[in-house]
Design brief:
A: alpha/beta, 5-stranded mixed beta sheet, B: mainly alpha, 20 helices, 4 strands
Chain lengths: 279, 444
Amino acid sequence: MFVMSISGLSLAHAGDKEIQMYIGSKASGRIAANSAIISDELKKLGYKVDYKLLGNCAPVKEMIEKGSDKTLVTVWMNLFQAGDTCHIEVKKEQFVGTVWVNPYWFCTRETQGGWKWQPGKTYKVATHPADGNDKVLSALGKILNVNLESVQYKNSGAIKKAFVSKEVDVVFASIGPELMADKSASCPYNTADQEYMGGKPLYPLLGGKVINARASAIVWVAVNSKLSPEDTKKLYQDIQKILAGNAILTAIKNQGSYQLNGSIESQIEAVDIFTQAIK
Amino acid sequence: MTLWIIVILLGIFCGLLIGLLPGAGHPMLMILTFPLLTVLPPHLVLIFYIVSVQASEFSGSVSALGFGLLGEITSQPGLIERPTVIAHQAIDVAFKYTAISSVIGCCLVMIPFPYLLEWFHAQPFMMRTEVVSLFSVLVFASVIFWKENRLVENVLLLSIGIIMSRVGFQSNGGGSTETHFLTFGQSFLADGFPTIAVLGGFLAMHAWFEFQSKAAEPVKFDQKPTHDLSFPWASSLRGSLIGSVVGLIPMVGSIMSSTLAHQIEKKFFHAKSDIKSCLARLSAAESANNSSFITVLIPLMVIGVAIIPSQMILINYLEIKNWTAESMNQWRFFGLNFYVLISISLAIAAAVSYFFCYTIVAPLAKFCQTRINLLNSVTFVVMLAAVIYAGSEVRNTIFFIVCFVAFSLISYRFRKTSFLPLIAGFLLGDQTIDNLQILQSLYF
């Protein structure tokens, strides 16, 4: 489960609305798409945004840790946090809010009729790259009386291709809503905490023992220490308004995602849980 | 609608120009137009590419016939027939007949093209990892036997390209899924070697150095043939059919289509050395050329696999725009299926390119002929600007420039070597290794 969080720590001089929005991913994918929406909305609010996609989280982490002369706004995710190279300290004063949470879905071809689990058989399951998948699939396989083996694909597009071409019959990935929308799959379970979009939560089904069912991402901003507190507060409020606005909510809803609405502390706690879950 | 028309006209203009420039070619066109292509949406990037490639095939024979220089390998038949054409003072007729042949080759495939794509899209097995891997492996096998280098050189270059493609850092969820390869802990290497610097240094600059070492043999234009010559319709149709089939062969299909059509025409239909037979062979080759550069799009547009160097560059640009081959099936513009839009764009490109090549190619070729060095200097400056622009977009300008200069120096040092195997390894290596790992997980 991915949680996108935006952390902004603005340290610009009073009245200075220049910010750098540097994203540690390539131009394809949802991070780029949704961060571009945020950048555009900030521009509409009068901010001068230098928006760049740096292709990789490592250079952004370097900027966060070494600082820069302008306000830095970035979007982070639990996949970055789960490793060593891009792991950053999640600080409350730098955490603005979550952009989206995207559960993983366990999907099969049952809607196409004639497809059934065969006891004892080994099924290849298309998954995102993550060590935690095997633990979930192993536990779920015992319940279904089958063997589930993970085949890691680079991204959602590759997973969908594998399913559509019948290279695999089972998927454990974020593209559940897409597959359900075109009626090519049935997705009875997902990694949300509660029943979500017709899918039952996996965590309680697996006895509450397999933590690898949730994930979150956090967005972090590295800045210098010369910003006025008023400008920082204003920036945070503006970003939070954007996160609660139509543009972002429509985008994430179409992607089958949701937002966390609790306190900052609870969201940071969720980030930690989701990050541990994906390892 | 306006933007679409502008993109088509721009694509035609760029394609015609690059076809006239000896030593240039589609890959260089893709590199030079990088800043433009980064701002266009994916469907217009594709239209620009398809239209410019077609247009360049219209004007490409001008380089061979007019200067005696090989702009693209596909113009080889033009070089072969050049002496006969000049001896019969038929250069003007040759230009015109190659233009007509290009239209025929384009039209023969352009009309069924949308239906072909729809049919292929309806075959889900095409998206399987085995099929995609097969195309990649065929490309690698082709470059290993690339005749411009020795076998050992090709294997070495391909291996280096594959290694270069893997350089970088990937963070997918920590643990064993986090991989570092030859980054030495440096963040500027996290995203690997910059594609534009690799292509610019090993492909564009290499062609530039190669061209500098050759001398053009300009021909006098405005020649009048000694007798009437009718257009060889049958030869052109044969060439179109050959090209449309051969274009599907990865890497070499579109390149060898014109040569194959030329050879078949020579062996079975027009073996004589008179001007009529010469023009028939030339027409067959030119039609094959244009038709192959449409069918060569099929693997790209159905399964997202690039099978020629310019497509490998194109896919690099498209992937950063969240493009997938499967999604194109759903695209609708102006109420039309995207594939139909491509055919319409090709029709416009063919019409405009034909008009250009039939009427004003001679004066424009003369213009280029007398300013070749200036045009090449301009392409170098544009190339460097593209590298600097790309680097600034990811705040890694110095690294981009260093790579471009280093690779350019290497390609200058080894300017007699073709770096195409390295390019193929670099552009396809990463994905191919990932696909082979998937196949291993699926079947072993």
